[in-house]
Specification:
By secondary structure, the protein is an alpha/beta fold. The chain has a 7-stranded parallel sheet with strand order 3-2-1-4-5-6-15, with helices on both faces. It has a 7-stranded mixed sheet with strand order 10-11-12-7-13-14-16. A two-stranded antiparallel sheet has the order 8-9. The protein is globular, with a radius of gyration of 23 Å. The termini are far apart.
Protein backbone atom coordinates (compact mmCIF):
# COMPACT_ATOMS: atom_id res chain seq x y z
CA UNK A 1 0.00 0.00 0.00
CA UNK A 2 1.36 3.42 -1.01
CA UNK A 3 1.41 6.05 1.75
CA UNK A 4 0.74 9.67 0.78
CA UNK A 5 1.65 12.33 3.36
CA UNK A 6 0.12 15.81 3.24
CA UNK A 7 1.33 18.63 5.49
CA UNK A 8 -1.30 21.38 5.76
CA UNK A 9 -5.06 21.22 5.22
CA UNK A 10 -6.11 24.83 4.77
CA UNK A 11 -8.47 26.48 2.29
CA UNK A 12 -6.64 25.16 -0.77
CA UNK A 13 -6.53 21.52 0.37
CA UNK A 14 -10.19 20.48 0.19
CA UNK A 15 -10.36 19.35 -3.44
CA UNK A 16 -6.85 17.91 -3.23
CA UNK A 17 -7.93 15.70 -0.33
CA UNK A 18 -11.09 14.67 -2.21
CA UNK A 19 -9.04 13.67 -5.23
CA UNK A 20 -6.41 11.80 -3.22
CA UNK A 21 -9.00 9.86 -1.23
CA UNK A 22 -10.90 8.90 -4.38
CA UNK A 23 -7.63 7.75 -5.97
CA UNK A 24 -6.59 5.92 -2.79
CA UNK A 25 -9.84 3.97 -2.82
CA UNK A 26 -9.22 2.81 -6.39
CA UNK A 27 -5.50 2.07 -5.96
CA UNK A 28 -5.64 0.84 -2.35
CA UNK A 29 -3.38 3.68 -1.16
CA UNK A 30 -3.56 5.64 2.09
CA UNK A 31 -3.47 9.37 2.90
CA UNK A 32 -2.19 10.90 6.15
CA UNK A 33 -2.80 14.59 6.82
CA UNK A 34 -0.80 16.57 9.37
CA UNK A 35 -2.36 19.88 10.40
CA UNK A 36 -2.47 22.10 13.46
CA UNK A 37 -6.27 22.18 13.27
CA UNK A 38 -7.14 18.51 13.64
CA UNK A 39 -10.91 19.15 13.61
CA UNK A 40 -10.80 21.04 10.29
CA UNK A 41 -8.50 18.41 8.78
CA UNK A 42 -10.74 15.56 9.95
CA UNK A 43 -13.71 17.27 8.31
CA UNK A 44 -11.89 16.92 4.99
CA UNK A 45 -11.23 13.20 5.55
CA UNK A 46 -14.78 12.50 6.70
CA UNK A 47 -15.50 8.81 7.25
CA UNK A 48 -13.02 7.53 4.66
CA UNK A 49 -11.08 4.46 5.74
CA UNK A 50 -8.32 5.50 3.32
CA UNK A 51 -7.22 8.54 5.33
CA UNK A 52 -6.26 9.66 8.81
CA UNK A 53 -5.33 12.92 10.51
CA UNK A 54 -2.46 13.76 12.88
CA UNK A 55 -1.63 16.98 14.68
CA UNK A 56 1.76 18.00 16.03
CA UNK A 57 4.10 20.95 15.96
CA UNK A 58 5.85 20.87 12.58
CA UNK A 59 8.98 22.12 14.33
CA UNK A 60 9.11 18.86 16.31
CA UNK A 61 11.88 17.04 14.46
CA UNK A 62 11.35 13.57 15.92
CA UNK A 63 7.65 13.44 15.08
CA UNK A 64 8.23 14.96 11.67
CA UNK A 65 10.96 12.44 10.87
CA UNK A 66 8.87 9.53 12.06
CA UNK A 67 5.96 10.29 9.77
CA UNK A 68 8.08 11.20 6.72
CA UNK A 69 10.11 7.99 6.97
CA UNK A 70 7.06 5.81 6.30
CA UNK A 71 5.68 7.92 3.42
CA UNK A 72 6.06 7.08 -0.24
CA UNK A 73 5.50 10.68 -1.32
CA UNK A 74 5.12 14.00 0.52
CA UNK A 75 3.06 17.12 -0.27
CA UNK A 76 3.61 20.36 1.61
CA UNK A 77 0.86 22.98 1.73
CA UNK A 78 2.47 24.62 4.74
CA UNK A 79 3.36 28.32 4.75
CA UNK A 80 6.36 28.72 2.39
CA UNK A 81 8.77 29.48 5.24
CA UNK A 82 8.17 25.97 6.63
CA UNK A 83 8.70 24.00 3.41
CA UNK A 84 12.44 23.75 4.03
CA UNK A 85 11.95 21.76 7.25
CA UNK A 86 10.00 19.15 5.31
CA UNK A 87 12.33 19.33 2.32
CA UNK A 88 15.41 18.57 4.41
CA UNK A 89 13.75 15.49 5.85
CA UNK A 90 12.61 14.36 2.40
CA UNK A 91 16.22 14.48 1.22
CA UNK A 92 17.41 12.69 4.36
CA UNK A 93 14.89 9.87 3.96
CA UNK A 94 14.86 9.83 0.13
CA UNK A 95 11.26 10.91 -0.40
CA UNK A 96 9.78 12.77 -3.37
CA UNK A 97 8.25 16.15 -2.48
CA UNK A 98 5.59 18.35 -4.10
CA UNK A 99 4.57 21.91 -3.25
CA UNK A 100 2.46 24.64 -4.83
CA UNK A 101 4.92 27.34 -3.73
CA UNK A 102 7.66 29.17 -5.58
CA UNK A 103 11.14 27.66 -5.54
CA UNK A 104 13.21 29.68 -3.09
CA UNK A 105 16.96 29.78 -2.48
CA UNK A 106 16.76 27.35 0.43
CA UNK A 107 15.02 24.68 -1.64
CA UNK A 108 17.38 25.41 -4.52
CA UNK A 109 20.37 24.76 -2.22
CA UNK A 110 19.20 21.14 -1.92
CA UNK A 111 19.38 20.52 -5.67
CA UNK A 112 22.71 18.59 -5.67
CA UNK A 113 21.42 16.22 -2.97
CA UNK A 114 18.07 15.83 -4.73
CA UNK A 115 19.87 14.81 -7.91
CA UNK A 116 22.37 12.55 -6.11
CA UNK A 117 19.52 10.63 -4.48
CA UNK A 118 17.52 10.48 -7.74
CA UNK A 119 14.55 12.24 -6.17
CA UNK A 120 11.84 14.44 -7.67
CA UNK A 121 11.11 17.75 -5.96
CA UNK A 122 8.26 19.28 -7.94
CA UNK A 123 7.48 22.86 -6.92
CA UNK A 124 5.10 25.53 -8.28
CA UNK A 125 2.55 22.80 -8.92
CA UNK A 126 -0.65 24.69 -8.12
CA UNK A 127 -2.57 27.35 -10.03
CA UNK A 128 -0.30 30.37 -10.26
CA UNK A 129 2.37 29.15 -10.20
CA UNK A 130 1.41 25.82 -11.74
CA UNK A 131 -1.37 25.66 -14.30
CA UNK A 132 -0.05 28.91 -15.74
CA UNK A 133 3.35 27.30 -16.41
CA UNK A 134 1.90 24.14 -17.90
CA UNK A 135 -0.67 25.74 -20.17
CA UNK A 136 1.78 28.39 -21.39
CA UNK A 137 4.57 25.89 -22.10
CA UNK A 138 2.23 23.65 -24.08
CA UNK A 139 1.42 26.56 -26.41
CA UNK A 140 5.02 27.77 -26.58
CA UNK A 141 6.39 24.32 -27.39
CA UNK A 142 3.80 23.90 -30.13
CA UNK A 143 4.84 27.26 -31.60
CA UNK A 144 8.51 26.26 -31.51
CA UNK A 145 7.77 22.85 -33.03
CA UNK A 146 6.52 24.59 -36.16
CA UNK A 147 9.45 26.99 -36.31
CA UNK A 148 7.69 29.96 -34.79
CA UNK A 149 9.33 32.80 -32.85
CA UNK A 150 7.53 34.50 -29.97
CA UNK A 151 7.69 38.30 -29.82
CA UNK A 152 5.36 39.01 -26.93
CA UNK A 153 4.14 36.95 -23.96
CA UNK A 154 1.62 38.16 -21.40
CA UNK A 155 0.11 35.87 -18.78
CA UNK A 156 -2.67 36.99 -16.44
CA UNK A 157 -4.30 35.10 -13.59
CA UNK A 158 -6.60 35.98 -10.71
CA UNK A 159 -8.78 34.54 -7.99
CA UNK A 160 -12.02 36.51 -8.23
CA UNK A 161 -15.65 36.34 -7.19
CA UNK A 162 -18.25 34.94 -9.59
CA UNK A 163 -20.31 37.92 -10.85
CA UNK A 164 -23.43 36.18 -9.45
CA UNK A 165 -21.91 36.37 -5.94
CA UNK A 166 -20.47 39.87 -6.35
CA UNK A 167 -22.30 42.00 -3.79
CA UNK A 168 -19.77 44.36 -2.20
CA UNK A 169 -18.03 47.52 -3.44
CA UNK A 170 -14.64 45.80 -3.52
CA UNK A 171 -15.93 43.16 -5.96
CA UNK A 172 -13.71 40.69 -4.13
CA UNK A 173 -13.92 37.97 -1.48
CA UNK A 174 -11.18 35.95 0.21
CA UNK A 175 -10.56 32.46 -1.14
CA UNK A 176 -6.93 31.92 -0.13
CA UNK A 177 -4.29 33.13 2.32
CA UNK A 178 -5.49 36.59 3.47
CA UNK A 179 -1.97 37.64 4.43
CA UNK A 180 -0.89 37.30 0.83
CA UNK A 181 -3.75 39.59 -0.17
CA UNK A 182 -2.72 42.24 2.36
CA UNK A 183 0.91 42.17 1.21
CA UNK A 184 0.27 41.88 -2.52
CA UNK A 185 2.67 43.93 -4.61
CA UNK A 186 5.01 44.72 -1.69
CA UNK A 187 8.05 43.46 -3.58
CA UNK A 188 7.36 45.69 -6.57
CA UNK A 189 7.65 44.22 -10.04
CA UNK A 190 10.14 43.68 -12.87
CA UNK A 191 9.12 42.78 -16.40
CA UNK A 192 10.09 43.35 -20.01
CA UNK A 193 8.09 45.55 -22.34
CA UNK A 194 8.92 46.64 -25.89
CA UNK A 195 12.47 45.41 -25.46
CA UNK A 196 13.12 47.31 -22.23
CA UNK A 197 13.34 46.13 -18.63
CA UNK A 198 10.68 47.88 -16.56
CA UNK A 199 10.83 48.21 -12.78
CA UNK A 200 7.80 49.31 -10.79
CA UNK A 201 7.99 50.11 -7.09
CA UNK A 202 5.26 49.16 -4.63
CA UNK A 203 3.86 52.67 -4.56
CA UNK A 204 3.09 52.47 -8.31
CA UNK A 205 1.91 48.85 -8.63
CA UNK A 206 -1.82 49.62 -8.46
CA UNK A 207 -1.73 52.81 -10.52
CA UNK A 208 -2.88 52.86 -14.14
CA UNK A 209 -3.53 49.11 -14.29
CA UNK A 210 -3.97 47.59 -17.72
CA UNK A 211 -7.27 46.00 -18.71
CA UNK A 212 -8.38 42.85 -20.56
CA UNK A 213 -11.70 41.49 -21.77
CA UNK A 214 -12.30 37.74 -21.41
CA UNK A 215 -15.47 36.23 -22.83
CA UNK A 216 -18.61 37.75 -21.37
CA UNK A 217 -16.98 38.69 -18.06
CA UNK A 218 -16.80 42.30 -16.91
CA UNK A 219 -13.62 44.16 -17.87
CA UNK A 220 -10.75 43.00 -15.67
CA UNK A 221 -7.69 44.98 -14.58
CA UNK A 222 -4.21 43.60 -14.00
CA UNK A 223 -1.10 44.55 -12.06
CA UNK A 224 2.38 43.04 -12.63
CA UNK A 225 3.71 40.19 -10.50
CA UNK A 226 7.07 40.30 -8.77
CA UNK A 227 9.94 39.16 -11.04
CA UNK A 228 8.53 38.17 -14.41
CA UNK A 229 11.89 38.28 -16.14
CA UNK A 230 13.19 35.37 -14.06
CA UNK A 231 10.73 33.14 -15.92
CA UNK A 232 11.67 34.30 -19.42
CA UNK A 233 14.64 31.92 -19.55
CA UNK A 234 12.63 29.03 -18.11
CA UNK A 235 10.02 29.59 -20.82
CA UNK A 236 12.73 29.90 -23.50
CA UNK A 237 11.70 33.50 -24.17
CA UNK A 238 14.83 35.52 -23.36
CA UNK A 239 14.63 37.14 -26.79
CA UNK A 240 10.94 38.09 -26.60
CA UNK A 241 10.53 41.87 -26.61
CA UNK A 242 7.68 41.71 -24.07
CA UNK A 243 7.39 39.27 -21.18
CA UNK A 244 5.08 39.91 -18.23
CA UNK A 245 3.11 37.89 -15.67
CA UNK A 246 0.26 39.64 -13.86
CA UNK A 247 -2.55 39.30 -11.33
CA UNK A 248 -6.16 39.94 -12.35
CA UNK A 249 -8.71 41.87 -10.31
CA UNK A 250 -11.82 43.89 -11.06
CA UNK A 251 -10.76 47.44 -11.91
CA UNK A 252 -12.46 48.96 -8.86
CA UNK A 253 -10.42 46.73 -6.56
CA UNK A 254 -7.15 48.10 -7.96
CA UNK A 255 -8.36 51.69 -7.55
CA UNK A 256 -9.40 51.03 -3.98
CA UNK A 257 -6.28 49.09 -3.08
CA UNK A 258 -4.09 51.86 -4.40
CA UNK A 259 -5.70 54.14 -1.80
CA UNK A 260 -5.27 51.49 0.92
CA UNK A 261 -1.58 51.35 0.07
CA UNK A 262 -1.22 55.13 -0.13
CA UNK A 263 -2.76 55.51 3.32
CA UNK A 264 -0.16 53.11 4.74
CA UNK A 265 -2.72 50.53 5.87
CA UNK A 266 -0.54 47.63 4.67
CA UNK A 267 2.55 48.64 6.65
CA UNK A 268 4.30 45.98 8.70
CA UNK A 269 6.98 48.17 10.31
CA UNK A 270 4.77 50.55 12.31
CA UNK A 271 4.52 48.43 15.45
CA UNK A 272 5.46 51.22 17.84
CA UNK A 273 2.85 53.68 16.56
CA UNK A 274 0.09 51.07 16.52
CA UNK A 275 0.43 50.66 20.27
CA UNK A 276 -1.04 54.12 20.78
CA UNK A 277 -4.26 53.55 18.81
CA UNK A 278 -7.46 52.27 20.39
CA UNK A 279 -10.04 52.24 17.59
CA UNK A 280 -10.14 51.53 13.86
CA UNK A 281 -11.34 55.08 13.20
CA UNK A 282 -8.44 56.55 15.17
CA UNK A 283 -6.01 54.39 13.20
CA UNK A 284 -7.45 55.65 9.89
CA UNK A 285 -7.37 59.30 10.94
CA UNK A 286 -3.78 59.04 12.16
CA UNK A 287 -2.84 57.52 8.81
CA UNK A 288 -4.57 60.41 7.04
CA UNK A 289 -2.66 62.83 9.26
CA UNK A 290 0.64 61.16 8.39
CA UNK A 291 0.33 61.81 4.66
CA UNK A 292 0.84 65.58 4.91
CA UNK A 293 1.75 65.76 8.61
CA UNK A 294 -1.41 67.68 9.40
CA UNK A 295 -4.97 66.93 10.38
CA UNK A 296 -6.87 65.82 7.28
CA UNK A 297 -10.43 64.53 6.85
CA UNK A 298 -11.41 61.79 4.45
CA UNK A 299 -13.17 64.32 2.20
CA UNK A 300 -10.02 66.46 2.08
CA UNK A 301 -8.00 63.39 1.16
CA UNK A 302 -10.34 62.56 -1.70
CA UNK A 303 -10.28 66.14 -3.00
CA UNK A 304 -6.47 66.25 -3.03
CA UNK A 305 -5.53 62.72 -4.15
CA UNK A 306 -8.45 61.11 -5.99
CA UNK A 307 -10.22 61.86 -9.27
CA UNK A 308 -13.69 63.12 -8.45
CA UNK A 309 -15.39 60.39 -10.50
CA UNK A 310 -14.14 57.78 -8.02
CA UNK A 311 -15.07 59.61 -4.79
CA UNK A 312 -18.32 57.73 -4.21
CA UNK A 313 -16.83 54.36 -5.09
CA UNK A 314 -13.84 54.76 -2.77
CA UNK A 315 -15.93 56.09 0.11
CA UNK A 316 -18.19 53.04 -0.18
CA UNK A 317 -15.15 50.74 -0.17
CA UNK A 318 -13.60 52.35 2.91
CA UNK A 319 -16.93 52.38 4.69
CA UNK A 320 -17.56 48.72 3.83
CA UNK A 321 -14.33 47.75 5.62
CA UNK A 322 -15.57 49.61 8.72
CA UNK A 323 -12.62 51.99 8.63
CA UNK A 324 -14.82 54.84 9.85
CA UNK A 325 -16.12 52.85 12.82
CA UNK A 326 -15.24 53.32 16.48
CA UNK A 327 -14.49 49.61 16.79
CA UNK A 328 -11.62 48.50 18.99
CA UNK A 329 -8.39 47.44 17.31
CA UNK A 330 -8.08 43.67 17.77
CA UNK A 331 -5.72 42.79 20.65
CA UNK A 332 -3.55 40.52 18.49
CA UNK A 333 -2.72 43.30 15.99
CA UNK A 334 0.92 44.37 16.09
CA UNK A 335 1.06 46.45 12.89
CA UNK A 336 -1.22 48.03 10.31
CA UNK A 337 -1.16 44.94 8.12
CA UNK A 338 -2.58 42.92 11.02
CA UNK A 339 -5.46 45.36 11.49
CA UNK A 340 -6.23 45.40 7.78
CA UNK A 341 -6.15 41.61 7.60
CA UNK A 342 -8.60 41.44 10.50
CA UNK A 343 -10.97 43.79 8.65
CA UNK A 344 -10.67 41.88 5.38
CA UNK A 345 -11.41 38.57 7.08
CA UNK A 346 -14.38 40.17 8.82
CA UNK A 347 -15.92 41.91 5.81
CA UNK A 348 -14.76 40.08 2.67
CA UNK A 349 -15.62 36.57 3.82
CA UNK A 350 -16.79 34.05 1.23
CA UNK A 351 -20.33 33.26 2.39
CA UNK A 352 -21.84 29.80 2.32
CA UNK A 353 -23.90 30.49 -0.80
CA UNK A 354 -21.07 32.26 -2.66
CA UNK A 355 -19.09 30.94 -5.58
CA UNK A 356 -15.61 32.13 -6.47
CA UNK A 357 -14.00 32.19 -9.89
CA UNK A 358 -10.53 31.62 -11.32
CA UNK A 359 -9.62 33.43 -14.53
CA UNK A 360 -6.43 32.94 -16.52
CA UNK A 361 -5.41 34.43 -19.86
CA UNK A 362 -2.31 33.98 -22.00
CA UNK A 363 -1.73 36.55 -24.76
CA UNK A 364 1.00 35.46 -27.16
CA UNK A 365 2.22 37.12 -30.33
CA UNK A 366 4.50 35.15 -32.60
CA UNK A 367 5.81 34.89 -36.13
CA UNK A 368 5.90 31.75 -38.27
CA UNK A 369 6.43 31.25 -42.00
CA UNK A 370 6.55 34.98 -42.60
CA UNK A 371 3.19 35.68 -40.94
CA UNK A 372 2.25 37.16 -37.56
CA UNK A 373 -0.21 35.51 -35.21
CA UNK A 374 -1.94 36.35 -31.96
CA UNK A 375 -3.10 33.65 -29.53
CA UNK A 376 -5.67 34.29 -26.82
CA UNK A 377 -5.88 31.27 -24.49
CA UNK A 378 -8.28 31.63 -21.56
CA UNK A 379 -9.50 29.59 -18.61
CA UNK A 380 -12.53 30.30 -16.42
CA UNK A 381 -13.27 27.98 -13.50
CA UNK A 382 -16.11 28.52 -11.02
CA UNK A 383 -16.37 27.05 -7.55
CA UNK A 384 -19.09 24.71 -6.37
CA UNK A 385 -19.58 26.42 -3.00
CA UNK A 386 -17.63 28.23 -0.27
CA UNK A 387 -15.59 25.07 0.52
CA UNK A 388 -14.99 23.40 -2.83
CA UNK A 389 -13.92 26.63 -4.41
CA UNK A 390 -12.42 27.26 -7.82
CA UNK A 391 -9.24 28.21 -5.96
CA UNK A 392 -9.18 24.87 -4.12
CA UNK A 393 -9.79 23.03 -7.41
CA UNK A 394 -7.07 24.74 -9.38
CA UNK A 395 -4.46 24.65 -6.61
CA UNK A 396 -5.24 21.14 -5.39
CA UNK A 397 -5.93 19.12 -8.52
CA UNK A 398 -2.52 19.65 -10.21
CA UNK A 399 -0.84 18.41 -7.02
CA UNK A 400 -3.15 15.41 -6.69
CA UNK A 401 -2.80 14.45 -10.34
CA UNK A 402 1.00 14.70 -10.16
CA UNK A 403 1.05 12.51 -7.03
CA UNK A 404 -1.00 9.84 -8.79
CA UNK A 405 1.17 9.93 -11.92
CA UNK A 406 4.41 9.73 -9.91
CA UNK A 407 3.23 6.82 -7.76
CA UNK A 408 2.08 4.97 -10.89
CA UNK A 409 5.46 5.60 -12.55
CA UNK A 410 3.90 7.68 -15.31
CA UNK A 411 6.13 10.64 -14.45
CA UNK A 412 9.71 9.38 -14.25
CA UNK A 413 11.68 12.63 -14.44
CA UNK A 414 13.92 13.35 -11.45
CA UNK A 415 15.65 16.40 -9.96
CA UNK A 416 14.33 19.81 -8.83
CA UNK A 417 11.64 20.96 -11.25
CA UNK A 418 8.74 23.24 -11.90
CA UNK A 419 6.16 21.95 -14.44
CA UNK A 420 7.58 23.42 -17.63
CA UNK A 421 8.68 20.12 -19.22
CA UNK A 422 6.50 17.90 -21.41
CA UNK A 423 7.00 14.86 -19.19
CA UNK A 424 5.05 16.70 -16.52
CA UNK A 425 2.68 19.13 -18.19
CA UNK A 426 1.24 16.90 -20.92
CA UNK A 427 -0.25 14.16 -18.68
CA UNK A 428 -1.28 16.63 -15.96
CA UNK A 429 -3.08 18.95 -18.39
CA UNK A 430 -4.83 15.95 -19.96
CA UNK A 431 -6.14 14.85 -16.56
CA UNK A 432 -7.13 18.42 -15.64
CA UNK A 433 -9.19 18.58 -18.82
CA UNK A 434 -11.02 15.41 -17.78
CA UNK A 435 -11.79 17.22 -14.51
CA UNK A 436 -13.36 20.14 -16.38
CA UNK A 437 -10.37 22.47 -16.28
CA UNK A 438 -9.61 23.35 -19.89
CA UNK A 439 -8.61 26.39 -21.94
CA UNK A 440 -10.40 28.09 -24.82
CA UNK A 441 -7.97 29.15 -27.51
CA UNK A 442 -8.41 31.74 -30.24
CA UNK A 443 -5.87 32.38 -32.99
CA UNK A 444 -5.87 35.46 -35.17
CA UNK A 445 -3.86 35.04 -38.35
CA UNK A 446 -3.23 38.67 -39.20
CA UNK A 447 -0.38 41.13 -39.02
CA UNK A 448 0.33 42.41 -35.50
CA UNK A 449 2.32 45.56 -34.92
CA UNK A 450 5.80 45.22 -33.47
CA UNK A 451 6.31 46.45 -29.88
CA UNK A 452 7.62 49.98 -29.96
Amino acid sequence: MKEILLFGAGKSATVLVDYLLATAEIENWHLTIVDADIVAAQSKIGNSSFGKVLSFDIQHEEQRNKIIQVADIVISLLPPALHFLVAQDCVLFSKNLLTASYVDDKIRSLQPEIENKNLLFLCEMGLDPGIDHMSAMKILDEIRDKGGRVHSFKSHCGGLIDPQSDNNPWHYKITWNPRNIVLAGKAGAIFKQAGKKVKIAYDKIFENCGEVLIGDLPILAYYPNRDSIGYASLYGLKDASTFIRTTLRYASFCRGWNVIRHLGLTETDDKETIKGYKTISEWLHQKLRGIELRSMTWLEYLKIYVDVKWHTELTEQIDFLDLFEEKSIPPHAECSADILQYLLESRLLLNQEDRDMIVMLHEIEYEANGERFYIDSSLVVKGEDHVRTAMAKTVGLPLGIAVKLILKNEILIRGLHIPVVKEIYLPVLAELESQGISFKEKVKMQPIQNDC
